[in-house]
Specification:
- InterPro entries: A/G_AdeGlyc_MutY, DNA_glycosylase, Endonuclease3_FeS-loop_motif, Endouclease-III_FeS-bd_BS, HhH-GPD_domain, HhH_base_excis_C, MIG/MutY, MutY_C.
- Its EC number is 3.2.2.31.
- Its cofactor is [4Fe-4S] cluster.
- GO terms for molecular function: 4 iron, 4 sulfur cluster binding; 8-oxo-7,8-dihydroguanine DNA N-glycosylase activity; adenine/guanine mispair binding; metal ion binding; oxidized purine DNA binding; purine-specific mismatch base pair DNA N-glycosylase activity.
- Keywords: 4Fe-4S, DNA damage, DNA repair, Glycosidase, Hydrolase, Iron, Iron-sulfur, Metal-binding.
- With about 375 residues, the protein is of the alpha+beta class.
- The protein folds into two domains: about 210 residues, Hypothetical protein, domain 2 (Endonuclease III, domain 1, Orthogonal Bundle); about 130 residues, Nucleoside Triphosphate Pyrophosphohydrolase, CATH 3.90.79.
- Helix content is about 45%, strand content about 10%.
- It contains 15 helices and seven strands.
- The strands form two sheets. A four-stranded mixed sheet has the order 4-1-6-5. Strands 3-2-7 form a three-stranded antiparallel sheet, with no helix packed on it.
- Helix 1 packs across helix 11.
- The protein is elongated and about 75 Å long.
- The chain starts with a helix and ends with a helix.
- About 35% of the residues are buried.
- It binds iron/sulfur cluster (SF4).
- The site of iron/sulfur cluster has 15 residues, from helix 9 and helix 12.
């Protein structure tokens, strides 16, 4: 190993042992905790994850408890974190652990990597952080740190670059310190070598950082831009109930599979692309919504705009225009629909966008 590598491993580990944050999943070596936290941390900030993690572990303290829970409870515990397929995969993985490994996450790379929803990064994180195995765990943070430190100009959006950086990261792990070392690189990426403004003057490895020495710390890493999410305009119906359903809203459950599977939402329609650029005048939009929902068996009369809301998924951007409808009287609630009130909300899982819309409605 060259001096630049030895220096990195030594100084980074020393810095981490003095500076690591006290995070709930770090308080004990527990592979299930590592697994849950790493899945939650994908695309989500540490400060957001902490209360979710604590509630989740209190509710589902072991893989077996998670495996045996109703899916609705798991989605409810995940509500607000987004990317719900993560929660479903986590539960599917927990079921595999319960069935094949007696409820204990196995200390075996091949077995861990075959669990549902566990990719190369999460495998590396579980094997190294929980079991102290010398496996790299390379995510965006780690690619950024190593691209800068070694002044690598390869595009980190390319799979071959990740493989190359995994080799580099594996060689850097000091014997017997995989757990602390991998967390140290992640911690450096989160606290010091941040995406936009790396704090090089506070960095424990600044002396030999090739990117900094070349003045390229903000230029690196090189990353080609992903395609922007596809915009979709949608019209939604806010349908209030009457009689025993007074104060409740008519919601529907999404299909068994696909985006946001089985979660609950306001009935809404996708506006054809050619009409969605500027949107239609409200009167025409309401007509379109009424006609489309009629075909679903819902008789509604949109009367005024309630509010607009939006949400970006990884590949789609939803712009939702919500129309309040005249009060609907349903002797029988159509299949797949339910009237949901302020007090029933806890029994249903909603995507973030509809959590915000329900909050706005019930706050009125
Ligand atoms: S010196 Fe700067 S660019 Fe290099 S690893 Fe440290 S924070 Fe990142």
């Amino acid at each position: 190993m060259e001096e630049q590598q030895r220096y990195f491993s030594r100084e980074l580990l020393r810095w981490y042992l003095d500076n690591r944050r006290d995070l709930p999943w770090r308080r004990q070596h527990n592979a299930y905790y590592t697994w849950v936290s790493e899945i939650m941390l994908q695309q989500t900030r540490v400060s957001t994850v902490i209360p979710y993690f604590e509630r989740f572990i209190a509710k589902f303290p072991t893989p077996t408890a998670l495996a045996e829970a109703p899916e609705e409870d798991v989605l409810k515990a995940w509500e607000g974190l987004g990317y719900y397929s993560r929660a479903r995969n986590l539960q599917a993985g927990a079921r595999e652990v319960k069935e094949k490994y007696s409820g204990v996450v196995p200390d075996d790379k091949a077995a861990v990597s075959s669990l549902k929803g566990v990719g190369p990064y999460t495998t590396g994180a579980i094997m190294s952080i929980a079991f102290n195995r010398s496996e790299p765990a390379v995510d965006g943070n780690v690619m950024r740190v190593l691209s800068r430190y070694f002044r690598l100009h390869d595009d980190i959006a390319k799979p071959a670059t990740r493989v190359h950086i995994e080799h580099i990261a594996r060689d850097l792990i000091p014997d017997g310190h995989a757990s602390d070392f991998n967390q140290a690189i992640m911690e450096l990426g989160a606290l010091v070598c941040t995406p936009k403004s790396p704090a090089c003057l506070l960095c424990p490895v600044m002396e030999h950082c090739a990117g900094r020495l070349a003045g390229e710390e903000t230029l690196l890493p090189i990353k080609t831009k992903a395609k922007p999410p596809k915009p979709e305009l949608r019209y939604a119906a806010l349908i209030e109930g009457t009689g025993v359903n007074k104060g409740k809203l008519l919601m529907r459950q999404r299909p068994e599979s696909g985006l946001l599977a089985r979660m609950w939402e306001m009935p809404h329609i996708l506006v054809p692309k050619q009409m969605s650029v500027a949107g239609l005048p409200d009167a025409e939009a309401q007509d379109m919504l009424r006609g489309a929902l009629h075909q679903e068996g819902l008789t509604v009369l949109p009367i005024e705009r309630f509010m607009d809301a939006e949400h970006t998924f990884s590949h789609i951007h939803w712009q939702m225009r919500v129309f309040r409808c005249s009060v609907a009287e349903y002797a029988v609630v159509p299949e797949g629909y339910a009237f949901i009130g302020r007090d029933d909300r806890e029994q249903y899982a909603f995507p973030n966008l509809f959590v915000r819309l329900l909050d706005a409605y019930f706050a009125e």
